[in-house]
Amino acid sequence: MGRLVFSCLAALSLAGPALAQQSAQQPYAPVRVSIGDLGIRDPSFVAFRDRMREIIRSRDRARWRGAVSPQFRFLKDLGGGFDKRKSAVQNAEYAMRFDSVGEDGKPDRNAGWKTLEAFFARPFGHSDIAQRSLCAPARPRYNEKAFEALLKRTDTSALGDWEAIGPNVNVHAAPRHTSPVIEQTGLIFIRTEHRQSDGALRGWKRVVTPSGKPGFIREDSISSIFEAQLCAAKNNRGEWRIVYWVGGGD
Length: 250
Hints:
By secondary structure, the chain is an alpha+beta fold. Helix content is 24%, strand content 22%. The chain folds into two domains: 39-140 and 228-246; 141-221, SH3 type barrels (Roll), CATH 2.30.30. It contains seven helices and twelve strands. A four-stranded mixed beta sheet has the order 2-12-11-3. The radius of gyration is 19 Å and the shape is globular.
């Protein structure tokens, strides 16, 4: 995935009636996942995360830059986004989309802050590639053989057809908070669907519940096994700093 993508919002007023005409999909037995937040175990990291959230709320660019390690770099840089000629802060701001441009052609001054906010709202966990660091979103743990059997049973792919979700996820009838909740589930791999018009679903994902009901969940409830991660680690003074961007993909 490389960089977190925020789609443009389009008119959704007709989504509800359209959903009512959808046919239910084939039910499936879900595979359970475990998503722990290791960040809550270390008081120094809890303090760092609280400080980052305050920096994000205040839009304090100087303090944000001070939170970036001079050794910041990209790992699994499949898109070739890391530029060795640029500073650590410049590369970090590129990863966080601080250079984004809005539809009007002007700089989007909120894009970077929204990207940071999304990461620091997620659980943090260890990474196989970013050693001695905590990364968000935390990778889900699961039984690989059971998941492979589910893929075979449903003739689907791990990349694009399934997403791991956190606990107590509300599945809505339409992609908005005020839409009725048709089911609540969580800590499973949930089936996802894709349509050409889904570019308008900013912040939402089209899914099918284990009982076969079509609906929508918030993207921030997802802990994908392929999603890009933002990682923090302690420096030699014991201070937490943002040190890695881990690209998404297998």
